[in-house]
Design brief:
Chain lengths: ~140, ~140
DNA sequence: TAGTCTTATTTCGTATGCGAAATATACGGA
DNA sequence: TCCGTATATTTCGCATACGAAATAAGACTA
C-alpha cells in the first residue's frame, strides 16, 4: 500500500466519521448550537463543577481549544466559570439554568442522530461484536 | 441508545480517525507541511491543471476552504494558479518544480503512516472484507 | 521567606472548515 | 447588443483546533 491518501480502509473510517458529524451538526443547529458546544454542555452536565483541564481531557481536546469553547458558552449564558475554592489558579465550570434547559431541549428534540444510532445498534449483534474487535486491532496497530 | 455523545460504535470510529490523523500529521510536519496541504499536493499531482471546484470536490471539502489552502501553498511556492484559457472565471492549479520535489521528499521519507497502513493491510483478508461490509451497512444507514 | 519550579488557565498566531456575500465572467434570449 | 441569470472563485465572519508564550498562583527548597 504505497499511497497514504488513497487507502480504502482509512477512507472508510473517514467517510463514516464525516457523515455522522454532518447529521449531528444539523441536529445541533436546530437548537442553535454547534456540535462541540452541545458536547461540552453534555460533558459538563454529567460532571458539574468540572475543571477546565479535566473537561478538555474528557473531550479529547486541548485546554486552549476548550477555553475558547467555554468563552462562547459563557457569552450565550449557558455555562458559568467560577474560581475554584481549593486552588485559585483553577476554574470550575457548571451549567446555568438556561444551559440545563438548552440541553434538555436538545434531548427532547427529534434527533436524527438518535434514530440512526438506534438503527445501527439494531444491526446483528455478531456484526457489531466483530466490528469492534477489528477496530480494536486497528487501533492497537495505530497506537503502537 | 439514548446518549448521542457516548456511543461505543461512534466513539470507535472517532478514535481511529483521530489516531490516524495524528500519525499523518507528524509525518507531514517532518517536511514542513500540514496534512491538508500534503493531501492537496498529492491530489494536484495526479491531476495537473485541475480546477479549484473539482479539487475541492475530490478533497470532500468546500471551494472556500480549498481556496485558502491554495493561498498558503502559493505562498510557499509549491503550486501555481493560472487563469483557465477556456473560461476566464476559472483557475487551474498545478505543482511548481518545488512542489513536485516536496511531494517526492515526503514519499521518499520514512513515513510512519505507510508502515502502519501496511500492518493494517496485513490483517486477515477475511477481517478486512467483513470490516468494509459492515462499514457499508453503517454508512448506508447514516446516508439514508 | 525569597527564589525557583510547577501547575492551571488564558492569550496569541496560524490553519483548517463552513456558508453567505461579493466579484468576475459566461451565456442565454429579447 | 443589452439584460438577467448562472457559474467559478474569492472574501468575510465565525467556530474549531493546536502549540507556544504569557499570566497567575501554588509548592518546594535553600
Amino acid at each position: 500500500m504505497k499511497n497514504v491518501f488513497n487507502n480504502e480502509i482509512i477512507n472508510s473510517f473517514y467517510s463514516i466519521y464525516m457523515q455522522e458529524r454532518k447529521i449531528l451538526q444539523s441536529d445541533a443547529e436546530r437548537v442553535g448550537l454547534t456540535v462541540v458546544q452541545l458536547r461540552a454542555l453534555y460533558k459538563i452536565s454529567v460532571r458539574p463543577n468540572v475543571r477546565l483541564a479535566e473537561l478538555a481531557e474528557r473531550m479529547k481536546s486541548t485546554n486552549s481549544t476548550i477555553s475558547s469553547v467555554i468563552d462562547r458558552l459563557v457569552d450565550k449564558e449557558l455555562v458559568e466559570r467560577k474560581t475554584s475554592e481549593n486552588d485559585r489558579r483553577a476554574i470550575t465550570i457548571c451549567l446555568t439554568i438556561k444551559g440545563e434547559e438548552k440541553l434538555r431541549e436538545f434531548q427532547e428534540s427529534k434527533s436524527e442522530t438518535v434514530q440512526k444510532l438506534q438503527r445501527i445498534n439494531d444491526l446483528p449483534a455478531e456484526d457489531i461484536k466483530r466490528l469492534l474487535e477489528i477496530h480494536q486491532k486497528i487501533l492497537s496497530i495505530l497506537k503502537d
